[in-house]
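Lecture 7 notes: from sequence to structure.
We start with the chain below.
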Amino acid sequence: MRTALHWLLRAFVLVVLLVAAGTFIPRPLWPSVHAANPSATARTILVLSNPIHTDIAIPLDDAIRSRFGFLVEAGVPVGNPGAKYLVVGWGGRSFYLETPRWADLKPMPVLRALTLDKSVMHVDVAGNLRDDDPAITRLRTDDAGLDRMLGFIEASFAHENGKPMPILDTRYGRYDAFYEANGSFNALLGCNTWTARALREAGIRTGTWNPVPQTLAVSLKLYN
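Predicted structure tokens for the same chain:
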């Protein structure tokens, strides 16, 4: 019994150290050549957080509406003047598709999320978002950084015959959609590490490893 407790304590300490290192060691370690140019036009990026998941919200302008115009075919009205933000997230297929609400939580999606699962993209639009919402982190980049991040997001969509692949008849609301995605999902390299990678493409520093929204939020405040 004492041996088992000893190993459990060691495992707990190791996890704490890994999470701390992932939060407090920045990535990149030094500001990169892709850091946002302070003299350039500032572009806003929002990170939307809940207890386990993060999405990226990008203010819609004519160029972005055109770039993501393919979403209209799946029912995402990026061209609607009332749509102010494009909201994008990446996650595990089983958990994302089968758990629209916490009341729908089942054992199998949780097991797949903790082991290995296929991935999907979730896209939505939003109207005006509150400046004082504690679940929203506002960040800034420049035009070049935003373009790199948008390229990363586009590359996350799986394609067939040159077109993104919508998952039909599966959605959370009236204006969102799911798409097949590239990459495999697990809890250690999941939705929040994808968000962090996208932000780094924009020249925004994150922690080395941010598996949960809380550590990502801390690292964003520390290094930006």
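Points to note: The CA atoms of residues 137 and 217 lie 8 Å apart. The chain has seven helices and eleven strands.
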